[in-house]
Amino acid sequence: MKKLLGLLVLLLVILAVTLWIRSETVFEDNQLQIKQSKQELPLDTDAAVARFAKGIQIKTISHDDPAQFNPQPFIEFRQHIKQSYPLVHQASQQKTFSEHSLLYYFPGTDNSLKPALFMGHMDVVPVDDATLDKWQQPPFSGAVVDDIIWGRGTIDDKVTVFALLESIELLLQQNKPFKRGIYLAFGHDEEIGGSQGAVKVAEYLQQQGVEFEFVLDEGGAITDGIMPGIEQPVAIVGVAEKGFVNLRLTVNSEGGHSSQPPEHTALGILSEAIVKVENAQFDTDLTFSKMTFDAVATHAPLSSRLPMANLWLLEPVVSNVMLKTPSSAASIRTTIAATMASGSSKSNILPSQASAVINFRILPGDSIESVKQHVISAIDDERVLISDFMGINPSGVSPTDSVGFKLIEKHIRQLDNDVLVAPYLVVGGTDSRYFTSLSDNVYRFMMVRLNPEGLTRFHGINEQLPVQDYLNAISFFHAMLQETSGIEMPQSSH
Question: Pick from 376, 392, 408: which residue ends a domain?
């Protein structure tokens, strides 16, 4: 027995040493080594901030109900940017889609170079009347108080629209032709799916036979204090995006008076089906979590490195830990969210039809069809009819060794080489999903800094942006546009 215990202890020691050695040797520092060199721009910063603030004041709100759409703010917004950026409008070819989404094209002199596309969106989500008194500054004031710009759209996503326009206006002042063509696309309905904006733009560009070297849209950001154990800020750049689909579950019955109910009403059958789906969670996949972690692993504590370096043994443990938090759970599996349900119109009437909607955010590797089959198998009840509406499959995965990713990485680190850069999976939806057929290199990043508190301001109360963050966004896009347009191609080494 003593020999057996001794052997067991020896094996445990060997295992512990193996796990530790792997945690110290598996990962390499993959961060781009570059000197910080923020470019001083000939920019009137007060005027630039004022132009941005005025754009925040214009209530370009997207509503789920089309009857609530007000076109006038979008007309005003378009007039504002036309007046504010005259060189942009003089130098570009412009096209409007569904009256409000905008596309600008700045031709390049070298037709052998594929153009690049930079994207943003002009619309914002509404502000709930019930939360108005909780805003420290009115949500459409564009107020600048203590070097902070306040209002809906300061983060999501007018910051990108105005930073791009300021940047390219500055470039045009140099009166130098672009070698590579540049497109800017600004959607007017991203917050409600982009069907009349980005979809139409993408269809038009595809008809024109346009292929992009890379596409850059919103998505990631510079996160601070969000990645456990890593003290440095981490810029997460989306290299893929989850898809989504809505499945409607419908149960029909004869109905009647509630005083003579069957054993299970249509609503009861439907409720059981929903529970079955929620209990049939999708398998986990750590591919994207590992991709993100690999990029920053050498800066992470041993407590994080050890399990991630030894997924061959500890993957179930890591998955279980990540599943305990909704945000991390969403990054490792297709999610299930029952969001809508209806039955009869009166409490004493048996429903002749009950229906519910379940929203799925689809991890790359799954598809709309595989999700539907998963649900059919989980419910296993012919009384429940299942149909899908709205949806798009997950995007492909863009490489991290392309010109586009290297440019993004380079100019993030040039602004601040304390910021680490890592690829990640975008769990929400962006307009870029419609452009994946136009380029293999689609990335999602916006130059803003977000801490845990800042994350809550997306679509929330007290959306705000420090003035310095806005100026950094202009510097970032100016450097990106300058190099992308062909003045200098990226030279990088890891």
Answer: 392
Say whether pLDDT at 334 is over 70. Answer: yes
Q: Is 123 a catalytic residue?
A: yes
Same-domain status, 209 and 65: yes
Say which amino acid occupies 310: N
Regarding whether 466 and 359 lie in a shared domain, the answer is no
Predicted local distance difference test score (pLDDT) of residue 480: 97
Q: String of b and e for 92-112 (b: at least 16 CB within 10 Å)?
A: beeeebeebbbbbbbebeeee
The active-site residue, picked from 157, 190, 191, 431, is 190
What range defines the domain where residue 370 resides? 243-392
Residue 19 lies in a domain: no
Annotation says 418 is catalytic: no
In a shared domain, residues 418 and 384: no
CATH assignment of the domain containing 296 = 3.30.70.360
Residue 248 sits in the same domain as residue 296? yes
180: CATH: 3.40.630.10
Whether 69 and 214 map to the same domain: the answer is yes
Q: How much of the chain exceeds pLDDT 70, in percent? A: 98
Q: Is the pLDDT of residue 17 over 70?
A: yes
In the set 123, 217, 241, 431, the catalytic residue is 123
- Pair (183, 304) in one structural domain: no
Identify whether residues 386 and 457 lie together within a single domain.
no
Within-domain flag for 17? no
pLDDT, tens only, 92-147: 999 999 999 999 999 999 999 999 999 999 999 999 888 999 999 999 999 999 99
Number of domains in the chain: 2
Is 64 in the same domain as 94? yes
